[in-house]
Specification:
The complex is a heterodimer of chains A (about 120) and B (about 150). By secondary structure, chain A is an alpha+beta fold. In chain A, about 35% of the residues lie in helices and about 30% in strands. The chains are: A alpha+beta (about 120), B alpha+beta (about 150).
Chain lengths: ~120, ~150
């Protein structure tokens, strides 16, 4: 069986994606891979969890249903987040010039496989 | 109920309303930070047993958290008990079972960070079960590895 680490490595091999992380809702990082970008993987778990948590609750308050995916664009990059079941979150960081449609497609396609491996 | 507990209860309810299940991550971070604020000076290089004795005394001074004890260890996984924690009284307002409220994660983070500072071992604290009759939460602190990029 392919490990979560390998699945994240495959995601980071997608053009434009530089970081892929799986974190628990409690903020613990389960696994993370970067393309060499210097990042304190452990420190980002809580911010990813709270970031997607507030987006999820916004959707609930605005009656738009269950959250399937979240995307935030920043000056130097894009973050795409997706729930892996009830207890985990997949977050990827992509370059601004990445093919956004492909990044979102890759996250959507691979999320069930990663969830099954957890 | 003490008005300070009501304030804490309202804060945890608001955080839970705004962040959902992710409130756990925020409260855990607060607990980690609080370890350094409450106990700025802690010895290091302690065994799990020694850490348990130090923490039992330290938690007593916090009041609301009740009695803390490390009752043993299996394969490096510490067995923890929290007895008579006053936040158990907040369960009705929060709608969450005792041991599963956002404020409980504050306690988990506090214990994890304090244990790490005392023993050098990074752990993850989890609720195993709650005994309402005994007013006790049974938890474990299992060693965890630091994820690498």
């Amino acid at each position: 069986m392919v490990s979560v680490k390998q699945q994240l490595r495959d995601l980071v091999n997608v053009e434009g994606i530089n970081t892929a992380v799986v974190v628990g809702r409690d903020g613990f990082v389960i696994e993370g891979v970067t393309d060499g970008t210097n990042m304190d993987i452990e420190a980002i778990g809580a911010v990813i969890s709270t970031g997607i948590g507030s987006a999820e609750m916004m959707g609930r308050e605005l009656n738009v249903g269950v959250m399937s995916q979240g995307m935030v664009e920043y000056k130097n990059g894009i973050i795409v987040m997706s729930f892996l079941g009830l207890d985990a979150i997949l977050a990827v960081v992509a370059d601004l010039n990445a093919n956004l449609g492909n990044v979102r497609y890759q996250v959507k396609k691979r999320s069930p496989e990663i969830q099954a491996t957890l | 109920m003490d008005s300070r507990d009501v304030v804490i209860g309202e804060i945890q309810a608001a955080v839970s309303r705004l962040l959902g299940d992710s409130a756990a991550a925020l409260m855990r971070q607060a607990g980690i930070s609080a370890s350094h604020q409450i106990w700025p000076e802690l010895p290091s290089g302690k065994t799990l047993e020694e850490a348990g004795t130090i923490m039992a005394e330290a938690v007593k001074d916090l009041g609301a958290w009740g009695e803390f004890s490390i009752t043993g260890a299996d394969d490096g996984v510490a067995k923890i008990q929290f007895k008579d924690c006053r936040f158990a009284d907040l369960t009705k307002a929060s709608g969450k079972a005792c041991g599963e409220q956002a404020i409980c994660n504050f306690g988990f983070g506090l214990v994890e960070e304090t244990l790490k500072r005392l023993t050098g071992i990074a752990t993850k604290v989890e609720l195993v079960r709650r005994d309402d009759a005994e007013r006790t939460c049974f938890e474990t602190a299992a060693p965890r590895r630091k994820p690498s990029a």
